[in-house]
Structure of ABC transporter ATP-binding protein:
Amino acid sequence: MNHTSDPVVEVVDLRKSYGAKHALDGLDFDIRTGEIFALLGPNGAGKSTTIEILEGFRTPTSGHVRVLGASPWNADAAWRARVGVVGQSTADIDRFSARELLRHFAGFYPDPRDPDEVLEAVGLAPHAGARVRTLSGGQKRRVDVALGIIGRPELLFLDEPTTGFDPEARRRFWTLVESLRTDGTTILLTTHYLDEAEHLADRVGVIAGGRLVEIGTLRELGGPEARTPVVSWRDADGHHRSERTHTPAALVSELAAALGGEPPELSVHRPTLEDIYLDLLEAHAATAGSSATVDEHGGRPTTNAGTATR
């Protein structure tokens, strides 16, 4: 997809410190008009701090930040009407119905979406009159999403938006996000579901230890060799061997000819986004001298529709 050259978000040497702890240590990136930019990283990497600064809820220690042409922490009500936020938790809205909430919040914006159309888009139309307290966790999450898009935002922050969604609901939500992009909405997405980033994002930034490890399109991420297939087998001496090659079929044929048949435990693996992501984190951890940077909770990213944690 083509995007205009005008950046909606500009971040230069962004830093945030809490005493001696550096939550953000010199981030540089931009987000272009009409693109979906995914910010990926393990727990404690600095994703939430970055987003809260861009949303205007937190101030940086230093650095240059412009969002929709303004410093977000000094922005006025007109600027806030141009921004949509889908955070990680539902506010204290349990006594209202989803339809009541959307009709109420629509009144805060100059050009809101139709509340009933939004309810349909997020899959809540059958539950529009139900009190939020009676909804399931996934349904409450859809209320968060509905509130985030009711104002027809130019820039939408989606912070792990599909946590708690079942597979069908996630797919419907992806379609909704793609329709928002088609309408011209710029989107900043954080997610632990790497298939979600792979499906939606135009570009990806990987953050670890408060630093941007790499940024680029999915094809660019990790460099030209990152997606080179890996052929693995066990040789005649019983040793496990592996080799990266752009021609796996030719290598398998050579091995079969040399060994007089298919090598034991033969496999051909084409690196996925998860493989590349983990390699980037491990390389960063090695450079930083601490494996704790990879994930402070020892977790791995989620690649299916299971519940992600942060």
Observations:
- The chain has two domains: 7-216, 230-269.
- Residues 18 and 83 are 27 Å apart (CA to CA).
- The chain has nine helices and twelve strands.
- The chain has a mean pLDDT of 85.
